[in-house]
Design a protein that fits this description.
The structure is a homodimer. By secondary structure, chain A is of the alpha+beta class. In chain A, 63% of the residues lie in helices and 12% in strands. The model of chain A has no long low-confidence stretch (mean pLDDT 90). Chain A binds a DNA duplex through α5.
Chain lengths: 116, 116
DNA sequence: TTATAATATGAATACTTATTCATATATTAA
DNA sequence: TTAATATATGAATAAGTATTCATATTATAA
């Protein structure tokens, strides 16, 4: 592979390098997507679109094991996709912010247009 | 774990189940995010935000090996994140549609607000 | 029609991460 | 203060997948 000398490409390379995110920023952007890219977690996020829920009800909504759902909830929380508050014996989970709703909506839109 | 009888939760469970995506739909939504959740691929996508590029220039922009980038490009293409066209000896890659640009922009926005 | 350039691909390996199992913590009720 | 409920967590394993290496394919130029 020697050289492709298209001027537009070289400009694009230049701007790509200038505007490149730091490793840390890149990691943070990717984390949001990586976390949402797992069906078991996406199910939880979609369930929470309907509003705040305790773990017991999340479990009813998405299925699986208590331990599994709990682990996934922690990943979601660590990555600020969801937040939680305690109410008595229950911990109530909800989506962390509106970005999440929008991001998921975009994902669904892409899914629809990517349908074969 | 016996019973949490909050009426709102039960409604949320109900609507979550009614509106649940099929396994196949769920898989498609997740794929978009899973693919974007890998730094090596996100770098490529971000590079292509600046416009169409051949593999050689993508390689210059993101680093890594030729084989590695090529494999990642295939994953991106299979999931309709990018598309490609041949021009002589070169294959030119570009983002598949505007959804991608928007999804990535949202991811960045979430990253910013999730900053500690 | 051979050589070279540009890109793609199969197989193997190395990493990452989801899931499971057993157990721990925290809250309320008795 | 003991028992029960609700949720979380550590460690182990299993599953998935990124990366690498060697090689194949496709297009052009000599």
């Amino acid at each position: 592979m020697t050289i492709c000398e298209k001027k537009e490409h070289e400009q694009a390379v230049g701007s790509a390098k200038r505007e490149a995110l730091s490793e840390e920023q890149l990691g943070r952007v990717c984390n949001v997507f990586r976390v949402l890219g797992e069906p078991s977690r996406m199910k939880i996020v979609l369930a929470l679109t309907g509003g705040e829920m305790c773990v017991y009800h999340i479990l009813q909504a998405v299925g699986g094991t208590q331990s599994g759902v709990s682990h996934q909830l922690r990943v979601l929380k660590d990555n600020r996709i969801v937040r939680s508050r305690r109410e008595g014996q229950n911990i109530l989970y909800s989506l962390a912010d509106d970005h999440i709703v929008e991001i998921v909506a975009m994902g669904r839109a892409h899914m629809d247009c990517a349908e074969e």
